[in-house]
Amino acid sequence: DGGITQSPKYLFRKEGQNVTLSCEQNLNHDAMYWYRQDPGQGLRLIYYSQIVNDFQKGDIAEGYSVSREKKESFPLTVTSAQKNPTAFYLCATSEGETEAFFGQGTRLTVV
Amino acid sequence: QKEVEQNSGPLSVPEGAIASLNCTYSDRGSQSFFWYRQYSGKSPELIMSIYSNGDKEDGRFTAQLNKASQYVSLLIRDSQPSDSATYLCAVIHTSGTYKYIFGTGTRLKVLA
Q1: SS3 for B39?
Q2: Of B49, B88, B105, the CB nearest to A99
Q3: Is the predicted pLDDT of residue B1 greater than 70, yes or no?
Q4: With 70 as the cut, is the pLDDT of residue A8 above it?
């Protein structure tokens, strides 16, 4: 069953803590993306990767880090430097200039 | 100037009417354009893709692209209450490595 799996669905972070959001795909797509969505807002690009072992900053990369060691995996770490991390995080993949496919999202809340 | 701009709405239309959603983009080199629908708390799902100037129809949906004006639109005919959602315009920017850029979305309300 092909698709994109994000985990966990809900995540709670304490102040000053780093947390990692998982994104795994079995679509064999080269490109992977992380977006952040705040209530009533659109999707803002955090990081993206076109190939393994390479990634670029998006518009709001500060306070986040990523890795792309395997084609199927693109984890996002929300570091303590991200002062307002409460949001809905979406991972997406694409191949060439075709549609992007999304995971189910992770809702992160600071407690 | 934002890379992809949409009116945030809400756009309210009566059931059965035509809803018209608009989007402008800044990268003149963009070749690929998409409309996604997003229900509250859910992931976006693809409605239409369009790559050439003109109209593309799929059921009740029509996407329109005008590259000279850097403008893409989505028409929803015979709007239904189930169409009430946020509609996101997405553009692939091609300067350097290409990347998906989304607009802020337009919230559509179809009134029964």
Answers
A1: coil
A2: B49
A3: no
A4: yes
Cβ atoms within 10 A of the Cβ of A9, count?
10
Closest CA to A89 of A41, A43, A29, A31: A43
Query: CA angle, corner B72, sides to B94 and A27, nearest 5?
Result: 55
Q: How many CB atoms are located within 10 Å of the residue A52 CB?
A: 15
Contact A102 B100 (CB under 8 A): no
B78: left (phi over 0), alpha (psi -120 to 50) or beta: left
| B42 neighbourhood in chain A, CB within 8 Å | 104-105
Mean pLDDT of A91-95: 94
Is residue B85 within 8 A of residue B108, CB to CB? The reply is: yes
Tokens coding A13: 């972070």
* Distance (Å) of CA A102 to CA A33, A39, A69, B45: 9, 18, 20, 8
Q: Which two tokens stand for residue A44?
A: 């803002």
